[in-house]
Amino acid sequence: SLIRLPLTDDPYVVDMAVEAMEVGLAIDGTDLAGAIAAGAGLLKDTPHSSKVLILVTDGAHNKAGMIPALAARAAAVFDVKVYPIAIGADDMQGRAAIEMGTVLTQTALITGGQYFRASDVEALEAIYDEIDRLEVASEVMTEREESVPLGLWLLLAGIALVVGATSLRGSRWGLVP
Questions:
Q1: Which residues contact 24 (CB under 8 A, 6 or more apart)?
Q2: Mind listing the domains of the chain with CATH numbers?
Q3: Taking the model in full, what pTM does it have?
Q4: pLDDT tens-digit series, residues 156-170
Q5: Dihedrals φ, ψ of 118, to 5°?
Q6: In 44-148, where does DSSP find H-type helix?
Q7: What burial class does residue 104 get, using C-beta atoms within 10 Å of its C-beta: 0-12 exposed, 13-18 middle, 19+ buried?
Q8: What is the pLDDT of residues 86-113, one digit of tens each?
Q9: Residues with Cβ < 8 Å from 174, sequence gap 6 or more?
């Protein structure tokens, strides 16, 4: 698994990095577990309340070592949601396609994300919009305003007045001619 760009919120930097990518630089095969572990490692220490990893793949996990479910559990420990997106033609068949869908669905369930499948650019854009909508809804739902009831403040003010009046009663300022 290869991290091409450190975390950034600058779209210009992301566009430049994507344009600089070349086909064939990666080692042959698909290491979903490595990608999940590397992404979760980047996101684990971020101060943001929402940590989202979008995993785009065109193949099933076929690397030895850590399995995707274990990497997903590690991501979940760091509160990283994984949204796997399988890309490719709808005619993708066979054991590899079934295995890929199962592994990606399991990854999403473990981390609280959702599995998607995109067969073309329009579908991929719609998926990104859906993830954006899900994460905004998630942020809105978890946002709470901490408030202290007004009655508590009034009670504290009343106690302070009683204590103050009692203290003044025995002093020279407590007697008014």
A1: none
A2: 11-142 (3.40.50.410)
A3: 0.68
A4: 777 777 777 776 666
A5: -125, 125
A6: 68-77, 94-111, 121-142
A7: buried
A8: 887 665 555 556 667 788 899 999 999 9
A9: 168
